[in-house]
Amino acid sequence: MIRDVSSSTLGREEERKPLMAAYMFQRRVLFGCSVLMVLSLIMWIVAISTDHWVIITGGKGIFIPETRRFFMDSHSGLWVHCRHTKTPNALPTANVVRNFTSIAYVNPTTLLDAKLNASALEFVREFSEEIVEIPMKNFTESARRRMFAHWVRNDEEEFKAFKKIFEDLVLNTTATQAETIPINAKPIAIDPLNVREIESRKIFGTALQKVRVNATSYYFVIPEAAQLAIFVGWNEKPFVPKLFWPYVRDLGVPAFVLDDHQVILQLVPPLPPSSGREANGYVYQPNERCKYIDMFTNPKSLNKDPGIDVELMDYIRTQASFACITVFVMSLGSVFSFYTFKNPRYMFKRLAGGIHLVSASTAVVVLQVLFSSVDYTKKHLFYAYPEGAELTYGYGVYLAWFTFIVNLVCGLLFMWYSGKKKGAKAPNDEVAMADEPTIMGR
């Protein structure tokens, strides 16, 4: 019996045409997924590089007591944080009540230079040589002068000794603690433009002082504990008015004043103008600062930044770690995705699909940790997320969601199309051979 080989072969090819069509459709789908994986990898790198993940806006401005600035907006990513504020500075001719901190040196370098220049002045040398009888029953004028002189001259041991005496005789007394320890209540906002009302009603009590600085008289709010720390005639000495606040801050004296119920009285300037810089007797100086987040900062540095703490740093480090892991896993997944076209064996498709699902998991971890860090910031860090601010998410978050969805869908598609195609189920002999079991021999 003679078999018609050509007709048998043609018949088998006809039977495999639907299988080949389905196989080619599968290859097109997986090729599209592989291209999308490369695109999503690029978008993920762009996303984690940008500083527009979390955007917090303060509307017309939210006053921050810690810095005496208006918070305007901020935007941050995994590595960089940017903050836009406006500092209200009263005009020299403006009839307003000023906080004594408003004339102080803010820049640390400028402060060190001012202390260095002041230490060379004659009156500082004379103050440092004044005789003070110890032990003291009351903190005398001579003690105030000596303590200030030692602070200016950076005589640490002598300054610490006088500071300890000042704490015992002044700060730790019952009367002073009632004026410096506030209750947990929202501060009472006081309009600094209502000078007559503040003076007539004695809102700030003896803390409101009319001080002459550079031949001009100003109303300053100076806490009574701060008044007890500075010598008489401080406003007439060079450098001293601008060194006053850094000096009492190092003594541990707070800048606020309390009412009779121990609630903080807070001078709040008018909101910044929508256009221009001058309004209501104030000049509003814009300030925008961007800084890289130090992933391995020490706790002492964190204490100096009111917008971050140890727990928030844990969130940030977790985000950054999983972001880098996602880059590595996605790169590996892209390689295996294209390798499945060179070697159609089912296990490589399953491997690629599994890697894509892992990438989706690590990407969603970054997003979930981000949302948790925002919730934590809102509850515990008023400086970074002021009350009344509005939260929006930037394009970095949307790119991250796109990456997650692409990885998830492509992972599922690779797993779906990873079934074995042996024998009559294979579209051709090459695929059938690829999916045959491999026997590992000696």
Automatic annotation (TrEMBL):
Signal peptide: none annotated. This is Uncharacterized protein LOC105229694. Its main location: membrane. It comes from Bactrocera dorsalis (Oriental fruit fly). InterPro entries: PMP-22/EMP/MP20-like. The chain crosses the membrane at residues 29-47, 320-339, 351-371, 391-417. The keyword Chaperone does not apply. PANTHER family: EPITHELIAL MEMBRANE PROTEIN-RELATED (PTHR10671), FI18012P1 (PTHR10671:SF110). The lineage of its organism: Eukaryota, Metazoa, Ecdysozoa, Arthropoda, Hexapoda. The gene is LOC105229694. Keywords: Membrane, Transmembrane, Transmembrane helix. It is a multi-pass membrane protein. It is found in: Membrane.
